[in-house]
């Protein structure tokens, strides 16, 4: 009997100890999904900042309203924040700046079939994206959405709008820039234009204090023009090998640029046509003139492995039927060129990627600023997921995971001129943050909503997935956002039947 009492009290002590430990390690207090508090303490986290430095911690990060009020060494005393109303326990977690996707398009339809903005927004936020730069969509709608996001009346990342300027003459181009400025855009997007028109548009944009993003296709202008005119960002890549060719691209006589099968097939040969010495000079010129590069590797990934692209595991629960229909091969839709894609095409593209990735790495080594964006919604690219894919491809290109995170946070903020408010875990910065219970530097795949399949005690387990997404001080439970997306997709599929 005496032994039993002793055993019981021993057990009680253990239970009490365990209780105290769990109080210390798992106490979230007053944290509500979709709410911003006056003051929130995020306790005991390891911080991975957006400035290219290694993780540090444990830290306590204090939010006040929509700002980061302090970043402190962790106070590990159990009662340290006893009087605080809102405490998020980050024990065992990693805190990063919210990710910035610098090349997106706002989609509320695909090929005329509706698809709610809410779907795109919530997939983005499920993937840790708290800011996007829209590079071309319906301006009126985009401006209205930006306002709703700023007010916090919708669940959406911050929206920065670089909208499309165009014109058949230089004067028309200038007029188009002025009209966009009046509509309240944050910057200008250009593509596919002749040199004199581009020069006028970039000049007018600069006069009005607007940065310019250039989607360079195969056109009259190339990376040297971007450098000469002072464009902020070169989107994608064509204009770089084009600037390093000896003469024109070696396209077959039957090539037609407006035939997307031709366009994407032969694009897979362009990097090897670039003269290495000329290419090196072009990259140096871009760096010298401060043109940043948004390679969007992941946009084209289907080209090197079409079977993979058509069968990604996240389609099962996260692919909206509207987007699914849009992806099917069709000469009528942009990026739906996969009909008849061949082994040879993929081999060409794999080589294309090797040279392209080396060029991006060389560009960064010369001091060039590389940003991360995904251009999703075309060619089997799914919002958010493809952005995370882009991070993996940056690592493949030779970037250390810390530098990859920097591309997606600090660099992207700097490219948009927001380096004093976004992309860092730093006092005074906007409270855009993500929390994850695995180390993304060990495996970027932990960032995916679908996590990483692993084994624990011989059983399948899913590890990772972001746990909290904080935008403008508003705290979202990320698995809840993921569920919203899955429900939206399931409902849209049922309605379609
Ligand atoms: Zn785009």
Overview in brief:
By secondary structure, the chain is an alpha/beta fold. The chain has helices spanning 2-25, 117-126, 139-151, 170-183, 195-207, 223-229, 239-243, 260-267, 270-273, 276-288, 306-310, 315-318, 321-327, 343-365, 385-396, 401-415, 478-496, and strands at 35-36, 39-47, 56-64, 67-73, 87-89, 94-97, 99-104, 109-110, 113-114, 129-134, 158-164, 187-191, 211-215, 233-235, 292-294, 433-436, 452-456, 459-463, 466-471, 474-477. The radius of gyration is 24 Å and the shape is globular.
Topology readout:
Blueprint: H1 2-25, E1 35-36, E2 39-47, E3 56-64, E4 67-73, E5 87-89, E6 94-97, E7 99-104, E8 109-110, E9 113-114, H2 117-126, E10 129-134, H3 139-151, E11 158-164, H4 170-183, E12 187-191, H5 195-207, E13 211-215, H6 223-229, E14 233-235, H7 239-243, H8 260-267, H9 270-273, H10 276-288, E15 292-294, H11 306-310, H12 315-318, H13 321-327, H14 343-365, H15 385-396, H16 401-415, E16 433-436, E17 452-456, E18 459-463, E19 466-471, E20 474-477, H17 478-496
Parallel strand pairs: 2-5, 2-6, 7-10, 10-11, 11-12, 12-13, 13-14, 14-15
Antiparallel strand pairs: 1-20, 2-3, 3-4, 6-16, 8-9, 16-19, 17-18, 19-20
Helix pairs in contact: 2-17, 4-5, 6-10, 15-16
The protein binds zinc ion (ZN).
Question: What can you see in these coordinates?
Answer:
- The protein is an alpha/beta fold and 497 residues long.
- Helix content is 39%, strand content 20%.
- The chain contains 17 helices and 20 strands.
- The chain has helices spanning 2-25, 117-126, 139-151, 170-183, 195-207, 223-229, 239-243, 260-267, 270-273, 276-288, 306-310, 315-318, 321-327, 343-365, 385-396, 401-415, 478-496, and strands at residues 35-36, 39-47, 56-64, 67-73, 87-89, 94-97, 99-104, 109-110, 113-114, 129-134, 158-164, 187-191, 211-215, 233-235, 292-294, 433-436, 452-456, 459-463, 466-471, 474-477.
- Helix 2 runs antiparallel to helix 17 and helix 6 packs parallel to helix 10.
- Bound molecules: zinc ion.
- Zinc ion binds at residues 103, 105, 135, 215, 375.
